[in-house]
Each structure stands twice: as C-alpha cells, then as structure tokens.
C-alpha cells in the first residue's frame, strides 16, 4: 500500500491518495482543484474505488462532484454530517469563501465504528468528533497509518469554534481513539505535515496535562 499527500483548494487541505499494487485507490478529502487531482490520478494509472471524507467542512469537499462525474464512485460520510454536503451554512463555505460550496449527497453513510471494506482495502473507522460532530478517522493497521482529518495535527489539534465543535469532546476523542493506537502510527492530518502518535503524546502542547 502507498499513500500520497496532495494539498488542494483554498486552504491547501491535504487530500490523500491511498493505493495498492493493483493500482486501485481511495481518495480521502478532495478539497478542491479537481482537475489537478484528476490529472495526478490519471498519470499514475490509478483506478479510484471511492472517496472517503473525514468530515464535511468546505475545504475537504470542493472536488467531490467533479470526481464523481469523472469516475462514478461513491462518497462515504458519517451520518452526523450527511446533510452538510448540500448546505453551505453547515459546511462553512458561505462564511469563509466568496462562493458557496454545495455538492450532491453522499452515496454511503457511515453509522458508527467498525471495519470499512472497499475492494481489498480494509480500514478501521474511529469516531473522533469535536472538531465537527461527524469527524471520523480511518486507521490502516497493516501500513501503520491513520487519516485523522482535522482532529489531530503535528503539534496542534483541530479548531472547535465552528458549528458543532466541542473542545472537551475533541480532547477526549484524541486520547481515547488516536493516542491508543501504536506509538509508531503515522498520523496523516488534514493540514500540514505528517507526524506520529508518539511525537504528539510527548510534545503536543494541547494534550499535555490531560
């Protein structure tokens, strides 16, 4: 399995392409710049199977409809944010951008934790609310990576001042769902560079003293 980080959209949100030896891939959080992303995928001769969303803020969903028009693949989102894709007030685009982002509803709704199987990809779904009520992280144990969205960053955590945000809930999510992963787990965040669970346990100032 291989992964590639591609910053996209107005906030340079990290989109990830997670691929296997068969050239199948999953697309995680395509925030914008759809044609750039499509070009990268085509040049690598990859076959997208699905789009996974860690949450539905505007900077994570901007390329959804263009990608679905290109490949006719399903979008997965947590049930707590299924209405956000088509509502610019919920996904935040009407407050942070000149134009609203409203995209089609997701084809697949995640109702809770468990194992998500798509092709030969198997990811453990971890509910990590706090940054938003439907935030979810995807953990791939064989590769030792977790796609944490905007829950946990290198040296920081997600903001909680947006609708549905809850600081105490986010801290609890990080400690109970992410910091319990193996310390060597690579954390692939929604913004910035990758980090490890060990590094955040030792030096993240927002998690000290909990």
UniProtKB/TrEMBL annotation:
Keywords: Hydrolase, Metal-binding, Zinc
Pfam families named in the record: Lactamase_B
Source superkingdom: Bacteria
CDD domains for the chain: metallo-hydrolase-like_MBL-fold (cd06262)
Cofactor: Zn(2+)
Residue stretches making up the Metallo-beta-lactamase domain: 12-191
Keyword Repeat part of the UniProt annotation: no
Signal peptide range: none
Name of protein: Glyoxylase-like metal-dependent hydrolase (Beta-lactamase superfamily II)
């Amino acid at each position: 399995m291989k992964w590639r980080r591609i910053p996209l959209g107005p906030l340079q949100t990290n989109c990830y392409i997670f691929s296997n030896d068969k050239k199948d891939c999953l697309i995680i959080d395509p925030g914008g710049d759809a044609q750039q992303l499509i070009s990268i995928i085509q040049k690598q001769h990859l076959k997208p199977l699905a789009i996974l969303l860690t949450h539905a803020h505007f900077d994570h969903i901007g390329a959804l409809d263009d990608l679905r028009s290109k490949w006719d693949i399903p979008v997965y989102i947590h049930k707590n944010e299924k209405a956000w894709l088509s509502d610019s007030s919920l996904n935040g685009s009407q407050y942070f951008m000149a134009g609203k982002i409203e995209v089609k509803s997701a084809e697949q709704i995640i109702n809770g934790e468990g194992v998500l199987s798509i092709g030969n990809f198997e990811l453990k779904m971890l509910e990590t609310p706090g940054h938003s009520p439907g935030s979810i992280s995807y953990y791939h144990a064989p590769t030792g990576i977790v796609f944490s969205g905007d829950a946990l960053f290198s040296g920081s955590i997600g903001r909680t001042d947006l609708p549905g945000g809850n600081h105490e809930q986010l801290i609890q999510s990080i400690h109970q769902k992410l910091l319990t992963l193996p310390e060597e787990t690579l954390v692939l965040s929604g913004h910035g560079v990758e980090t490890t669970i060990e590094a955040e346990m030792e030096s993240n100032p927002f998690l000290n003293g909990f």
